[in-house]
């Protein structure tokens, strides 16, 4: 097997210079870099992550664990998280947990990951406990579960309270809601905050006007068809997130229901499509990009040293963003 | 260091049984699996990808190389590609090439990847040649470049020809276009196919009504503001892909220009948002999910054996999908 020693000999440089040249170190001259690269190419030498992991005892791969990779929400998380990990010298590996009661903990460990970001763990998941048992560092993303660990979360209260005041001022008396799944901390927490805020301003939310479903477009489309198709449906539809609200807006278009003339629709997340002129969704915003970068920093800092330090929780505040999908109550 | 031998001793099973139990092999009983997992946990044993790579001589990580990870197009590619790779026992690592003239080839090799899928390589990129020099297998995704290699591509002709006939039948005489970048094979090929098809049906495309830009929303928004804001703008706007067309549709909404009353707008890709009731974009469709899966199969089959076999090119056909953004010419 070709080693960096062989490359050093052929290029006429020291062995450490080979590594620095191939890693594009700024202190190595362009001429030396080229000489080393040519020698490496001539010999077919590839410095491998495997070799590096053996010599340093750890890898630089961070796993992002999600259940539903085709949920568009993650496309806005992956780019900044990948970018921040790259800045910190780490790579991003995607892992889905189709069935997280299965051997996912073993799989995560066998992948040789340095640490993982858990983005879809349900509150009853055994995964955090198993990772803790096996000594694999992890960070909760927009979630928390039983085991104490670093977390980046959203604090919905400020945005949700402002939205409740705004819709009460617009004359709305009764709301319908498509909430998230019961077994996620995010779903439960947003539902709790929304119910409290609506109650505070005297807007009623009857049990027959509430459905629950996944945080996706289809859930919103289906839920809105169910809730808005009825006689006497409320003038306000609260959605678990923007994707659900986009599904609901499209259902309204399919049902030929005027938004906001007959029903006002509200999301949560402020994803880029919500700002489109064609959409103009009223929503609750927070800095998702900053949150994705923070998760990357937390996991790398945990991996690189302070494993025994107390768990950190970084909470991102929310604001109410009124746009075209909220109007005065028609009643 | 704890090895599987230690786990086998503590659990009272053979060494191969440890590996099979931790990989959830169906032939191992639930009781044995539990015994092995408990022993592994008690000893803090983690079978690592590093160890496996050393014993087998190769990894199971496939890199997906893109320039602009925040381009929404990739979110529809990543999920099926990840899923198909998983089915074949491989993982997906995301790699961006912000500056592909830089040390990206070395970086790809140093990541210990088994192979890579190149999704954004420009025709003048040196990356394919460098990967070939270093013996790293790769597959072009929706692109080709100078070096002969496996590729999954789209054949635009059938869809584009049908679209040209449809708009000619609707009375359109002059088109404007927002085409893709000159230095990508996809941009060049679609532009060539579109120009030929329009000429065939007698629709003119004047040089002053053509702009070029990246395959993204902002390019469409900016291009449409430039092209549609003029007096005497054509009645038809052809876009390089759906994201560009979505940007153009939003620009039309911002400019209060009726679609399709004053201008008909056409995309390419048929991404899910194009099917929304709020959008209903007329577009050219192909099976992007099947193409993403095919790229995964090609790279794994190349990695696992037939490295010397001739390069394979799998082309996906296109169809014309008329929706609400195309109407009769107003003139």
Automatic annotation (TrEMBL), chains A, B:
Keyword Transcription recorded: yes
Protein name: Transcriptional regulator, LacI family
Domain HTH lacI-type, chain residue ranges per copy: 2-56
Source organism (scientific name): Nocardioides terrae
Keywords: DNA-binding, Transcription, Transcription regulation
GO molecular function, one term: transcription cis-regulatory region binding
Record keyword Isomerase present: no
Organismal lineage: Bacteria, Bacillati, Actinomycetota, Actinomycetes, Propionibacteriales
